[in-house]
């Protein structure tokens, strides 16, 4: 049940912060997004101190935030992230070893896929969400609609160019979750909190129309 519980937390939030920052800054961002109502964040392994940042978030925020690892491109990185308690894995590419480890340890995996064939293969292998990368951020919500029309069951996560002004458009197009970079990682802690709250309100407003 672990994977499904973690997946539910991501789905309930509907959004996660995509963070590339030093550990001290990661804590500030975490404080802002939690207060703003988006208690999920991905810490990118493009930073060598990502494991330290994950540990610090766990220590300071405990279960009030779900923290995952990003830019997980190979099995070695996945093993390290899992060892540090990452609650999900996030990547710009699909890697079968990462997928195997995510399945073994029962945590969600969101690989980046560039073609529909690759995305379907990843989904069949057990991917929790498909990040249609990089075309979602380049082409906008229409590409999501195009994919969802013949494959409505494909769980899509959009990452790139999302903020409070357009998040509703992405959900209308059919995404399940959005990954948000600059809008949830730039500025002061208070600025991030305000931005997170605005995004939270937009997602909740969209969902209220679907009930």
TrEMBL record:
<protein>
    <submittedName>
        <fullName>Ketohydroxyglutarate aldolase</fullName>
    </submittedName>
</protein>
<dbReference type="InterPro" id="IPR000887">
    <property type="entry name" value="Aldlse_KDPG_KHG"/>
</dbReference>
<keyword id="KW-0119">Carbohydrate metabolism</keyword>
<comment type="pathway">
    <text>Carbohydrate acid metabolism.</text>
</comment>
<comment type="similarity">
    <text>Belongs to the KHG/KDPG aldolase family.</text>
</comment>
<dbReference type="GO" id="GO:0016829">
    <property type="term" value="F:lyase activity"/>
</dbReference>
<dbReference type="InterPro" id="IPR013785">
    <property type="entry name" value="Aldolase_TIM"/>
</dbReference>
<comment type="subunit">
    <text>Homotrimer.</text>
</comment>
<dbReference type="Pfam" id="PF01081">
    <property type="entry name" value="Aldolase"/>
</dbReference>
<keyword id="KW-0456">Lyase</keyword>
């Amino acid at each position: 049940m672990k994977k499904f519980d973690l997946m539910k937390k991501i789905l309930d939030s509907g959004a996660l912060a995509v963070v590339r920052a030093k550990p001290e800054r990661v804590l500030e961002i975490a404080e802002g997004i939690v207060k703003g109502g988006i208690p999920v964040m991905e810490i990118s392994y493009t930073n060598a101190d990502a494991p330290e940042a994950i540990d610090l978030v766990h220590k300071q925020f405990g279960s009030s935030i779900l923290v995952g690892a990003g830019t997980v491109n190979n099995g070695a990185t996945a093993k390290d992230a899992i060892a540090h308690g990452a609650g999900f894995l996030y990547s710009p590419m699909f890697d079968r070893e990462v997928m195997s480890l995510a399945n073994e340890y029962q945590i969600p995996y969101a690989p980046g896929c560039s073609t529909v064939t690759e995305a379907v293969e990843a989904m069949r292998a057990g991917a929790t969400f498909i990040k249609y990368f990089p075309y979602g951020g380049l082409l906008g919500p229409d590409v999501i609609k195009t994919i969802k029309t013949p494959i409505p069951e494909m769980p899509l996560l959009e990452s790139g160019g999302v903020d409070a002004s357009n998040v509703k458009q992405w959900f209308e197009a059919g995404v399940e979750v959005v990954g948000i970079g600059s809008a949830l990682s730039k500025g002061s802690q208070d600025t991030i909190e305000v931005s997170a709250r605005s995004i939270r309100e937009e997602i909740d407003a969209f969902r209220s129309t679907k009930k």
